[in-house]
Amino acid sequence: MSADGNWKITINTPMGAQVVDAEIKTNGDTFTGVTKGQMGQQEVSGKVAGDTLTWSADITSPMPMKLEFTAKVEGDNMTGNVKLGMFGNAALTGVRA
After folding, report:
1. Range of the domain at 36
2. Number of domains in the chain
3. Cα 8–9–13 angle (5° rounding)?
4. 63-95 per-position pLDDT tens digit
5. Alpha carbon separation from 71 to 10, 68, 94 (Å, rounded)
6. How far apart are CA 54 and CA 66, in angstroms?
7. Which DSSP letter does residue 28 get?
8. If 26 and its partner were Cys, which of 31, 42, 57, 92 is the partner (CB 3.0–4.6 Å)?
9. Greatest extent of the chain over all pairs of C-alpha atoms, in Å
């Protein structure tokens, strides 16, 4: 599994779909990257376990909260879940861009 490259990720939040462009570079059992979306640009880093990526991001808009991501990469597709702080979970899908 290689998650390296550019991705277009859609998060189906209670406030509607949020689209994020991500650039990911793996290095063994970790990865780094940059995400860009409506809420700006943010550097990210996380863990790689087989075909699964996990990371978290702190956001301030529309309100401060910690987002916790789990995504499984299969070829040019990504599926997963985002824990939206106290607001439950949202499905995540992505395609290699």
Report:
1. 5-96
2. 1
3. 145
4. 889 999 999 999 999 999 999 988 899 999 999
5. 12, 10, 9
6. 13
7. T
8. 31
9. 35
